[in-house]
Specification:
about 300 residues; alpha/beta; D-Maltodextrin-Binding Protein, domain 2; 3 domains; 9-stranded mixed β-sheet; two-stranded antiparallel sheet; elongated
């Protein structure tokens, strides 16, 4: 599979005349295309392309390899077209990666419905907050929660959420008053290890200007559920997405702190390696999730 992608990248570079145009043709990044070609040259033990700042040219070995690679790829495309209906066929194993908490809370209830709609699809789901390499680890797609969509993957936004600063009523009754953002620095906080800002929490003030405060975590965890549990046990402040704490806020188990300061918006995206020849099972899942999150349950 890796060599197939390497051959695709190499032939695209030759046909397009540059790495940039090849990346556009393959709907990926220049860095990915360059890496694949380098890996192919390393695998073959020979240089296929001469690269200068102005132009690319084929070596003798590259010229011969290009002709054979192009024929192999053309034959494969013809075989696929003859053997099936291609992207219209929704069947086979669909390997998905998703964040742990979001996957358990908001994706797990959806899998059964999807399987009913697509009885020929098998789901293989891995939940982890680690950012996996879809191609190297063999995932068809992933659901990712991030403030900025990936620049190297095809991304479709499913919905948006927002970070919320909150604590339990029990903690707030006994702790020092919180009347301004800087007060947070003096409080016990439960920090999520994967937060992109580290120990610095950012907000928009009532005028919409970004503000930040450095926190001093009493507890640090790579699980939002762990942070939430500590907050419910009256141990301090947490800064978590609404999809995790929304029900607690509605029930009163947690209370929003400094609501005039808005946490940053975060996107929930479906991502996959390429738009070209997108398998029907991936397209079906992305469309299904986009429809499911038109009105988020935590909204």
């Amino acid at each position: 599979m890796d060599q197939f992608r390497q051959m695709q990248a190499f032939t695209a570079v030759v046909q397009a005349g540059s790495f940039v145009k090849a990346a556009q043709r393959l709907d990926t990044s220049k860095a990915v295309v360059s890496r694949l070609v380098l890996e192919l040259e390393a695998l073959l033990g020979t240089r296929l392309l001469n690269r200068t700042t102005r132009r690319l040219s084929l070596t003798d070995a590259g010229s011969e390899y290009f002709e054979r690679s192009r024929q192999i790829l053309d034959d494969l495309a013809d075989a696929n077209a003859a053997a099936s209906q291609g992207a219209l066929h929704t069947a086979g194993r669909l390997k998905i990666n998703a964040p742990l908490t979001f996957g358990n809370l908001h994706l797990a209830p959806l899998w059964g419905e999807f399987l009913k709609l697509h009885p020929q699809v098998e789901l293989d789901i891995t939940l982890t907050d680690r950012v996996v390499d879809l191609v190297e680890e063999g995932f068809d797609m992933a659901v990712r929660i991030t403030r900025q969509a990936s620049s190297t993957l095809v991304s479709r936004t499913l919905t948006h959420d927002r970070m919320v600063l909150c604590a339990s009523p029990g903690y707030l009754r006994t702790a020092a008053p919180i009347t301004q953002l800087d007060d947070i620095a003096q409080h016990s906080v439960m920090a999520y290890s994967w937060w992109s800002g580290g120990d610095v929490w950012t907000f928009d003030d009532p005028q919409g200007k970004p503000q930040s405060v450095a926190t001093h975590p009493r507890l640090r965890a790579n699980s939002g559920d762990t942070c939430r549990a500590a907050a419910l046990a009256d141990q301090g402040l947490i800064y978590q997405p609404a999809f995790l704490v929304g029900q607690d806020l509605r029930s009163g188990r947690l209370v929003q702190v400094l609501p005039q300061y808005r946490g940053p918006s975060i996107g929930i995206h479906a991502v996959y390696p390429s738009r070209q020849h997108l398998p029907g099972k991936v397209r079906a899942m992305v469309d299904f999730l986009a429809a499911a999150f038109q009105t988020p349950a935590w909204g």
